[in-house]
């Protein structure tokens, strides 16, 4: 491979904002795997956000990129999988599997797509120092007439359209809106873009905690919600406490600490098969096989309010929630899924077009 921009490339990043800023280039924020795609003739490389290769996990996409991209180019975009008209992040994580046969089966069952939103190189020219407005025009020209599973991300400079996307696209599983200055040059690993994500609040049960990697202080709180059958389901974690607060939490939570998880609603968390029928903490992770998933069980009597962006498959928080406050006025049993907002449905085909 011999391109004007060579792997590894770390993607340009975004910082969070509460509102969509004016006078910018706007795109939807895709909920998938960020990917930098390199094509030089028959050679195709797909680099992840951490620069690791994703080629072996998306064989069907490698073939499609070889057929549909310009012969020599570097593109920034997102790998996504759509099911039932919305993005499915869980289907993506299933692809990170050591068995090639399993990856191949999943690629046939739920093929992935690539949504391109930036062009870093074309033919013999690096575009890293070219303004975004010009890179976008070149991207649209380079992918003119392209067909699924490769797509060009919809974009606009109209803030009213961006605001409408922010409200509508959530129903298709998208994260929010990304805003980029029109004069922006591509800078690796720098937070020069702006992301505006949905934020909601929910009252949840604090049913345990994990220790911080630095020592005997709280790393994250384990959160639960009761389902229609009265079963406490693990829905995620909240973190981002100061070190002083982490130490204080150890003492505050001590009266609720259980000697073991044997009498806890999540007692079966070490049984891998139990994760098939219930949401429990400590599920095996293909991303961090050596990570310690042990946790300290608490009697599920404490309620807190957290902020979250959206739910994954209507079952768990897609990202780490943000602690807001304790809710001594709420009973744990009142913390159910019914309090969660349900975004209005929106078919992904209306954004990218129907699959071919």
From TrEMBL:
<dbReference type="InterPro" id="IPR050191">
    <property type="entry name" value="ATP-dep_DNA_ligase"/>
</dbReference>
<dbReference type="InterPro" id="IPR012310">
    <property type="entry name" value="DNA_ligase_ATP-dep_cent"/>
</dbReference>
<comment type="similarity">
    <text>Belongs to the ATP-dependent DNA ligase family.</text>
</comment>
<dbReference type="InterPro" id="IPR044117">
    <property type="entry name" value="OBF_LigC-like"/>
</dbReference>
<dbReference type="Pfam" id="PF01068">
    <property type="entry name" value="DNA_ligase_A_M"/>
</dbReference>
<dbReference type="InterPro" id="IPR044119">
    <property type="entry name" value="Adenylation_LigC-like"/>
</dbReference>
<dbReference type="Pfam" id="PF04679">
    <property type="entry name" value="DNA_ligase_A_C"/>
</dbReference>
<keyword id="KW-0436">Ligase</keyword>
<dbReference type="GO" id="GO:0006310">
    <property type="term" value="P:DNA recombination"/>
</dbReference>
<dbReference type="InterPro" id="IPR012340">
    <property type="entry name" value="NA-bd_OB-fold"/>
</dbReference>
<dbReference type="GO" id="GO:0003910">
    <property type="term" value="F:DNA ligase (ATP) activity"/>
</dbReference>
<dbReference type="GO" id="GO:0005524">
    <property type="term" value="F:ATP binding"/>
</dbReference>
<feature type="domain" description="ATP-dependent DNA ligase family profile">
    <location>
        <begin position="105"/>
        <end position="227"/>
    </location>
</feature>
<dbReference type="InterPro" id="IPR012309">
    <property type="entry name" value="DNA_ligase_ATP-dep_C"/>
</dbReference>
<dbReference type="InterPro" id="IPR016059">
    <property type="entry name" value="DNA_ligase_ATP-dep_CS"/>
</dbReference>
<dbReference type="GO" id="GO:0006281">
    <property type="term" value="P:DNA repair"/>
</dbReference>
<protein>
    <recommendedName>
        <fullName>DNA ligase (ATP)</fullName>
        <ecNumber>6.5.1.1</ecNumber>
    </recommendedName>
</protein>
């Amino acid at each position: 491979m011999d391109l004007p921009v060579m792997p590894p490339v770390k993607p340009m990043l975004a910082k969070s904002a509460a509102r969509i800023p004016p006078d910018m280039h706007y795109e939807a924020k895709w909920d998938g795997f960020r990917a930098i795609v390199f094509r030089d003739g028959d050679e195709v490389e797909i680099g992840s956000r951490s620069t690791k290769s994703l080629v072996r996990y998306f064989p069907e996409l490698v073939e499609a990129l070889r057929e549909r991209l310009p012969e020599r180019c570097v593109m920034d975009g997102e790998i996504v999988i759509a099911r039932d008209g919305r993005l499915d992040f869980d289907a993506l994580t299933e692809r990170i599997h050591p068995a090639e046969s399993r990856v191949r089966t999943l690629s046939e069952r739920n093929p992935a797509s690539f949504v391109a939103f930036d062009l870093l190189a074309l033919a013999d020219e690096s575009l890293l120092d070219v303004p975004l407005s010009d890179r976008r025009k070149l991207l649209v020209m380079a992918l003119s007439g392209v067909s699924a599973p490769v797509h060009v991300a919809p974009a606009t400079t109209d803030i009213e359209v961006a605001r409408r996307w922010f409200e509508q696209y959530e129903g298709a599983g998208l994260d929010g809106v990304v805003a980029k200055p029109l004069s922006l040059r591509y800078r690796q690993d720098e937070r020069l873009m702006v992301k505006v994500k949905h934020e909601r609040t929910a009252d949840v049960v604090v049913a345990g905690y994990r220790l911080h990697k630095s020592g005997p202080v709280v790393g994250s709180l384990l959160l639960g919600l009761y389902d229609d059958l009265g079963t406490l389901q693990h829905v995620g974690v909240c973190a981002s406490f100061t070190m002083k607060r982490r130490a204080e939490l150890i003492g505050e939570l001590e009266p609720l600490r259980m000697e073991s998880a044997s009498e806890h609603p999540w007692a079966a968390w070490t049984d891998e098969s139990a994760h098939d029928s219930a949401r429990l903490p400590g599920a095996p992770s293909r991303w961090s096989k050596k990570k310690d998933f042990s946790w300290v069980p608490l009697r599920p009597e404490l309620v807190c309010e957290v902020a979250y962006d959206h739910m994954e498959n209507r079952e768990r928080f897609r990202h780490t929630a943000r602690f807001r406050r304790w809710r001594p006025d709420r009973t744990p049993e009142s913390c159910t899924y019914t309090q969660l907002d349900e975004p209005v449905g929106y078919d992904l085909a209306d954004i990218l077009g129907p699959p071919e």
